[in-house]
Amino acid sequence: MNLLHLILREVGYRPLNFMLGVVSVAVAVACLVSELTVLKRYDLRTDGIIAARSAETQSRMAGLEDDYRKLTLKMGFNVLILPKDQNLGDLYANDFAAKSMPEEYAARLAGSRVATINHILPILQQKVKWPERERTILLMGVRGEVYMQDAKQKQLMGPVASGTMLIGHELAVNLKLKGGDDVVLMGRKFTVAQVNPERGNKDDITVWINLAEAQALLAKPGQINAIMALDCTCDTIDRLGKIRAEIARILPDTQVIEFASQAVARAEARQRAASEAAAAMAQEKTVRAKLRAEKEAFAAVLIPVALLGAAIWIGLLAFSNVRERALEIGILRALGLRSRQVLLMFLSRALVTGFAGAVLGFAVGVLATLPAMPALQLPWLPLVLLAAPALAALASWLPALIATQQDPADILRKE
Amino acid sequence: MSAILEICDLAKRYPGPSGPVHALVNVSLQVNPGEFVVVQGPSGCGKSTLLLAAGGLLRPDAGTVRIAGQDPYALSPEDRAGFRAAHIGFVFQQFHLVPYLSIIDNVLAPDLALQRPDATARAAELIARFGLKDRQHHLPGQLSVGERQRTALARALLNRPQLLLADEPTGNLDRDNGVLVLDALAEFARAGGAVLLATHDIAAAGRAGRTVHLLAGGVREHDRKEPA
Fold it and tell me: What is the dihedral angle through the alpha carbons of A408, A409, A415, B6, rounded to the nearest 10 degrees?
């Protein structure tokens, strides 16, 4: 006969004490397993949702791309009409056309009623030094649109009243200017009518004034250096070629380039859609992370409480078992059982209780979270099967020590 | 011939509500191999205390105990337990069987301490000898009192002890079972063992080779006669 045989016989003889111990361990283990499974399931669901959202966004982006492609077939685009002798390299390098052409060209173009152009805006633009402020600026004279295809159309850019100016955002910040301020530009007084919002391009260092005043300041009376033909439409594939041909017919000594095209607009729209999708996904992740943290906090309270409760309960049951078996311990000690064997007997009983509780608790935990079965973490099983008996043995340590300290003579004498 | 049990000037007192109670006062006793000694005396005279002290379970306040030439109280508690298992057999009035172990397992219980390879065969032999073969897989609660005491006797003999300490082993038995137990004790003594039996039973005293009267903690007289 060995100690395990004796322990199993005792367990069979006093099943209530054993079962109560097993149930307490099982409850703690079930809490642990179900909480961990629920958390893992939540993580898997989060990953699934984020992956689905990502796929959905990709799909929507692809759809958006296609939609833009279809939409922009009939979408307006912008062209810049420049003097024919303007070197484009210089234009791109300097941000303005050094050559000029008569302002009358705008009226001529408008008068021709070109079907492909919706808005015509003559400008005189030049990079100049603002002597009074010691700043290099882009000075742009505008007179508003000279032509709109349809009276119902919204004006893309209105005229700038004489004696006023509109200034770009960077200039306003740098020169500490605001609406209503009076300034002097190249010896002429102006009032700041408006500060434009930040655009992130050369507009931020541009000053818009009335075209006639610009012509006067730049000593180019009756001259402009570009005509912006905006929101052009064309139903052919080679729309730039078609509009170039039309304009060349009306204004033969000009050249036409495309600028701020729909491609840019499309890219910007796509970028905006992508960043909105990313923001939505980030928000989803934040919300789910917050929910997970709440679940984790709950588990962080529940699991230790369950484990502590089980440990206390097992300790009490072990005390009860030791008291109940006092005579038996006395007899076995009289028969020669050593105190360390008595200790081992009670600790082994606790290990058996812990192991049985771990198996039962794991099964209950799995059943309780049956819908989350894919998230079941079998790697936890060995840990649980080791930790639960260890916890039970730890909780039974003191009662087992008390059992070893019982005096067999005292017990037998009282009997 | 050297004594198996030698007790010299043994004293033991217990704390009591009105001062210490002297259970044993200068008790000296010797039990030789083959000797069946009965201790008699009124209740409370210290018979059980004497057996516990003689069995290495209760350290005396004074005096010495030697079993097979060795003082068990000079050993560590763990070694003393092993010494008990190897040299001493106990039989109690209440049998003190482990209630959840079968008869065979109860007989084998002392083997938990020694783990001898022949223990199972020895247990089977003892079970057969005491007429318990048909009952060996029963629990103690399913046995008659006589069968239970026979089981306790078999358990006491499992490790082939040199000394058998029996505390009122026939107190709960009918005459036939009492005789059977006393026969077994006498046979053990005849085989060279030493028996120290504490009892009120006149018949039991009649089987002893020597009777020791314990009165108020001290040995008062020894009656010697030939063993039955």
Answer: 130
